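ok, trying the design again with the full structure, not the truncated one.
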């Protein structure tokens, strides 16, 4: 007996990699944030993407500090918070002069999903001003007509996944089992599955299309 394909009535997606090729801008911002720290950081692009997949784009510099700083009570976390804040500040400043390329597969997915009557929402690892700037760059005044929800995981804090997913479902008026989260970060994907959402782990340069989405989506845990 053929398994019935899942019905997708809502898609939540992150912006990094999925809708925009932000990795080069992140890498430059990270190097700028690390200047003067005395910590050598020479990540390649694949290494940066691997780190972001492991901890999320919000906290990539958590893993950049020397191991010995773990012994300083609260020191490493406090310094990591400052470095991550500097990273996002440099990233946002760079958006004024250096626009990331849009991922054509992500743009087409949005068009096809909207044509099919699917609701769309953004849960971004970027601070809200950076996420808003990117969306405005691509969609102009149509952002609110295309996306039912635009939220920042960075601003909400990484410990509030469950509340953010509940807010997204409530705002969009959909159930978890008919919603797919597309993300590059394993912690974000795991939290979504625990909240009952289906998930797609996207890796550059990955296949991403409305037609293939039901087969790609992993079941909630």
């Amino acid at each position: 007996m053929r398994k019935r394909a899942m019905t997708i009535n809502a898609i939540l997606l992150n912006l990094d990699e999925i809708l925009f090729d932000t990795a080069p801008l992140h890498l430059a911002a990270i190097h700028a944030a690390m200047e003067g720290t005395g910590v050598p950081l020479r990540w390649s692009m694949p290494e940066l993407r691997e780190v972001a997949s492991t901890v999320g784009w919000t906290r990539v510099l958590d893993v950049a500090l020397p191991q010995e700083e773990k012994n300083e009570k609260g020191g490493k976390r406090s310094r990591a918070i400052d470095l991550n804040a500097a990273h996002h500040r440099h990233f946002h400043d760079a958006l004024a002069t250096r626009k990331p390329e849009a991922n054509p597969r992500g743009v087409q997915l949005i068009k096809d999903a909207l044509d099919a009557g699917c609701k769309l929402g953004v849960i971004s690892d970027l601070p809200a001003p950076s996420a808003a700037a990117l969306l405005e760059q691509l969609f102009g005044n149509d952002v609110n007509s295309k996306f039912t929800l635009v939220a920042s995981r960075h601003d909400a804090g990484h410990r509030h996944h469950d509340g953010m997913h509940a807010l997204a479902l409530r705002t969009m008026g959909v159930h978890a089992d008919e919603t797919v989260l597309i993300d590059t970060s394993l912690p974000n994907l795991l939290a979504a599955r625990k909240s009952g959402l289906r998930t797609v782990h996207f890796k550059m340069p990955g296949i991403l299309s409305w037609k293939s989405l039901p087969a790609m989506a992993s079941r909630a845990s």
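Keeping the full-length input from now on. The mean pLDDT is 86.
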